[in-house]
Input
Amino acid sequence: MFKKHFPASKPKDEAQGRRDPWMGMDQFWQNAMSPYTSGVAPVVDVSETETEVRVAAELPGMDVNDIQLTLDQGVLVIKGEKKREEEHKGEGFHRVERSYGSFSRAIRLPTTCLETKVQAEYKNGVLSVRIPKDQKFCARRIEIEG
Amino acid sequence: MDNERTQTEERQLPQVIPATDILEKEDGFHIFMDLPGVDKNDLVIDLNDEEISIRATSAQKPRGDVRFTHSEFCSCQYARTLTLSSVVDRGRIRAVLKNGVLDLFLPKAEEAKPRRIEIQAG
Output
């Protein structure tokens, strides 16, 4: 975003071997402006094998009952609310680096899947979702006649 | 791209400083550390003279024919060292790992707890 407005800054910095001062800015704005996330959205990985799509999200310290998972028309939505381990008001915190509160994140699946056969597991603070691909839409070789 | 990543992972996992909350209460210090993907067996807590160091490895991803279309986190090594206050009773430190969060309790020694001093009539 910023690079666009300061096109001269990048080659000069690279020539001098300096760190690009705008590095990370694009990502920052992308996250801040994204319509697909709200609250402190969890980080996700999306991967696929030949037969299924896998989505993994880091959600440390959640209760399974506080995670809501919906899949509708190829968009998987992870919603939830993270509560504090210990309710404590006022002073006493030396450091607060972790985040709390509600969040939601939407992920578009890379291919058409069988939405009724979703498997989800929550283990060690990581949510893993597996959705089988719809074989009708998978890549296949087409025989040529003639 | 995927090949490059796999090779890097085998050589050395990226180091991550886990997000930590430290809360001081009358009975001691409650420390909460986010360690998503870490199993109890992959967590090591070392207590030295003045420091407590936490090291952990998050579970490896299944190898094989998996193609990543989008990746924001990967297997990593968590490491963080905290300086212990002299009021901590080292013998009673308690650690619980649940749902990817390490809950460390560092109790204060009895003599360090706040107490009211009785005033005797002179």
